[in-house]
Amino acid sequence: MDLKKRFFRDERGSVSLVVITLFLVTLMTSLIVADLASVAIAKRSLTQVTEAAAQRGVRNLDLNAYYSGEFDLTTMASNLLGIGPDDPGVPIDCSKALLDAQGVLVDWANGDKSLRRGEITSLNIMEINCDGFGVQLITEATAKLPIIIPIFKVHSVQISASVSTTNTRKAGFSPFGIRIF
């Protein structure tokens, strides 16, 4: 009995176990945080290139739809009084818009490595739509993790970005390009 009591009351070495455990927990936490930060930065980079592609797409003006003969003096007067038709937006040429948006993504994926994040690979366009006034893009890529933790055995994660953009006209009256209000 006396030996058992001494064994359980002996506290030598217990502090070193706590210190080692806390060190390992801190180390694992810092490695996980580094991986999460890398994925967050890769996600933001993918979102930025997707936004750039969508913005490049909507710059293609559909001249025929834009300059259709819908504007006359009565339309101008009703717009000034605030009772005119709702403006659906600036019409864009969808065929050119989709090609431009795809071109930006291909250029970025195949371009100089200094212009993109090194951990992003396998950029794919999951969905690309044009409704005549806007471009919608959904992209997906693989982000490699900088630190592979043996316990989890995860080497990479899938990230995606979804962007939609349109062009709008500014409200007001601007004859000859000079904005009055």
Walk me through the topology.
Blueprint lengths: L1 H8 L4 H45 L4 H4 L6 H8 L13 H17 L9 E11 L3 E11 L11 E11 L15
Antiparallel strand pairs: 1-2, 2-3
Helix pairs in contact: 2-5
Task: Give a structural overview.
The chain is elongated, with a radius of gyration of 29 Å. Helix content is 45%, strand content 18%. A three-stranded antiparallel beta sheet has the order 1-2-3, covered by helices on one side. The chain has 181 residues and is α+β, with helices and mostly antiparallel strands. The relative contact order is 0.17. The protein has one domain. The chain starts with a helix and ends in a 15-residue tail after the last strand.
Short key terms for the protein model shown above:
single chain, 181 residues, alpha+beta, 3-stranded antiparallel beta sheet, 3 strands, elongated
In a few lines, what is going on in this structure?
Helices cover 45% and strands 18% of the residues. By secondary structure, the protein is α+β, with helices and mostly antiparallel strands. It has a 3-stranded antiparallel sheet with strand order 1-2-3, with helices on one face.
